[in-house]
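B., you asked whether I could sanity-check this one before it goes into the benchmark set. Here's the sequence:
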Amino acid sequence: MAKLRLYGRVVSLYDTNCYFLENEDTREVVIVDPGGDASRLADLIDQNNATPVAFLLTHGHFDHIMAVNELKARYPSAPIVASVREKMLEDPSINSTPLGDPNYTVHPDVTVDEGDVLTYAGFRFQVLSTPGHTAGSVCYYMENESLLLAGDTLFFASYGRTDLPTGSDEEMQKSRERLYFTLPLNTAVLSGHGRTTTIGQERRIFGIDQ
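And here's what the prediction gave me:
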């Protein structure tokens, strides 16, 4: 089994968590939600002598994508992976990039949907479709490592807003309930903003387990 080294950086003015999942033996690294500060992220990759093998996007808001094109240009062999349903990636009028680069769009190399399984850097990622924050929001579940890369679907004691384009409060509630009731309680939740939590902790916070 691949040995995981997990680290991250907080990027952009919106304090987005960008995660690095590195295979300690091969130095291959998967980068999740590079939302800004491309040069700083590239320096971190080079300092660790790491080789990016994939960029995983949980959704298409600008604060989760604004470094991916620059990193892709520097490491062209690593594919950009995103949901087939996340059309806002190619539409700056709804991905909120007017707050950053008004013309910023992302064209995924690989599109995924519910139930797809990806293998990068020796790690297995199961794609969970979790609409609500956006129509194409996904989580990446690493069962062997008991990790959920949740984007803005789950935060500590909270969750992402649903009032932006393609968001839906009804879909968000369904997505949250699915995660709460199907994933093991010890699953660590790596959120798009803020601190790490667990499925069990969130169930207690929201009164599911009394």
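One thing to flag: The longest strand covers residues 4-11. Otherwise nothing jumped out at me.
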